[in-house]
Every structure is written in C-alpha cells, then in structure tokens.
Design brief:
The complex is a heterodimer of chains A (107) and B (119).
Chain A lengths: L3 E2 L4 E4 L5 E7 L7 E6 L6 E5 L3 E2 L7 E6 L2 E6 L9 E6 L6 E2 L3 E5 L1
Parallel strand pairs in A: 2-11
Antiparallel strand pairs in A: 1-3, 3-8, 4-5, 4-9, 5-6, 7-8, 9-10, 9-11
Chain B lengths: L2 E5 L2 E3 L5 E8 L8 E6 L5 E7 L6 E3 L7 E6 L4 E6 L8 E9 L2 E7 L3 E5 L2
Classes of the chains: A mainly beta (107), B mainly beta (119).
C-alpha cells in the first residue's frame, strides 16, 4: 500500500498568514493526489485534485502543488473559516489511501 | 443538487452483521463509481472500497475484503455496504462518496452513518 505521510499533525497560524501543509507519498504517485478539508462534525470537502487543480467553488487562496512523492497545499491569507483538518489522498494505485490529517489551529 | 444519504448505522455486537445504505439523488447514479470511506472517532479517513457503474468491478482495501461487501442497485439509486464479523475497531462513521467522473477522488460525500460495535 502507498503510505501518505502528513508529518505535522497540528499547525498554528494566524488570520492573514500563508501556511503550507505537506504530504509525502511512499512511492511515486504522479499527480494523482487530492486534498480535502474537514471541519468538526462535517463531511470532508474536496479542495484540490490532480495535485494542483482547484475544485469548483474553492477559493483561489487554496493552491496545490507537487508531483511524484512530495505534495503541498498552500493557503494564502488564511481566514478563520479555514481552521479545519486537511487530508491528502492518493488515487494512483489501489488501495486508495489518505494521509492522517493536519489540523490547522489559531496561534 | 447531488445528495448522498447514508442510513442503517447503529449499535451492533461484536461478531455481528449490519447493512448500510446510501441513497443517491441529483445525478445519474448508474454512471458513476461509488465508494465507501470510514472514519473512526477522532481518527483519519480509511477507504473501504468502490464499485463501478454496472457492478462488474469491485475493489476493496485488502484488510477489509473478507468482511465487507459492496453492492448497488441502480434502479433504486442506492449503494450498499454489508458488514460482517464486526469488531470494536470497525466502530466508525461510514461515508459513501462519489468519484469525480473517471478519477478516484471524491467530489461528493454523504453526511455519514455511525456504526458502534459493542457488547
């Protein structure tokens, strides 16, 4: 199985900051990576697919980058509504696997 | 509007069985791959498996292949997850999710149904 490692379980930020959430794949997954946002008590919501394509309706302060094994979700000008947990997912090969998540918190 | 509504969760004893349903609306259910994903309390997301539009291909995460069965009824716009031989570690919120056309990432998620395994 491909392991998706989000090494930072928690990240602290302030409103207006720029923050980068990282995800590392144990094997080359090309650009077959998606990112999701999950707020407490809610279902995950898609943000980014194919590593860098913003899903419909997602604010342009969310940017995805990377290929191969290293991926980054960058949130520019963080807003209070962005305080949530973020998961990466690879869909290059089966079984599909998710990262363990990174929780974005206020400093 | 795409809607996915899971049901069937509840309390089940260890070793028991449970069948979850996911009612889909707002899109042509018969044309999309569908998946089940679960999330244990306070934990991350775990993909259980997926089924193609005509049920001819079903993929599972290997560790769950012998205890979970995914099926669908396109006439009823409903996805199913048959769970058997459940254990405490199967306690989780179970989501159904729709793939984005031909790619196995999830544009739409249901609200989840909670399964609690306990004596």
């Amino acid at each position: 199985d491909i392991v998706m490692t989000q090494s930072q379980k928690f990240m602290s930020t302030s409103v207006g900051d720029r923050v980068s959430v990282t995800c590392k794949a144990s094997q080359n997954v090309g650009t077959n990576v998606a990112w999701y946002q999950q707020k407490p008590g809610q279902s995950p919501k898609a943000l980014i697919y194919s590593a860098s394509y913003r899903y419909s309706g997602v604010p342009d302060r969310f940017t995805g980058s990377g290929s191969g094994t290293d991926f980054t979700l960058t949130i520019s000008n963080v807003q209070s509504e962005d305080l949530a947990e973020y998961f990466c997912q690879q869909y290059n090969s089966y079984p599909l696997t998710f990262g363990a998540g990174t929780k974005l918190e206020l400093k | 509007e795409v809607k996915l509504l899971e049901s069937g969760g509840g309390l089940v004893q260890p070793g028991g069985s449970l069948k979850l349903s996911c009612a889909a609306s707002g899109f042509d259910f018969s044309r999309y791959w569908m998946s089940w994903v679960r999330q244990a309390p306070g934990k991350g997301l775990e993909w259980i498996g997926e089924i193609n539009p005509d049920s001819s291909t079903i993929n599972y995460t290997p560790s769950l292949k012998d205890k979970f069965i995914i099926s669908r009824d396109n006439a009823k716009n409903t996805l199913y997850l048959q769970m058997s031989k459940v254990r405490s570690e199967d306690t989780a919120l179970y989501y159904c999710a729709r793939a984005y056309y031909g790619l196995a990432w999830f544009a739409y998620w249901g609200q989840g149904t909670l399964v609690t395994v306990s004596a």
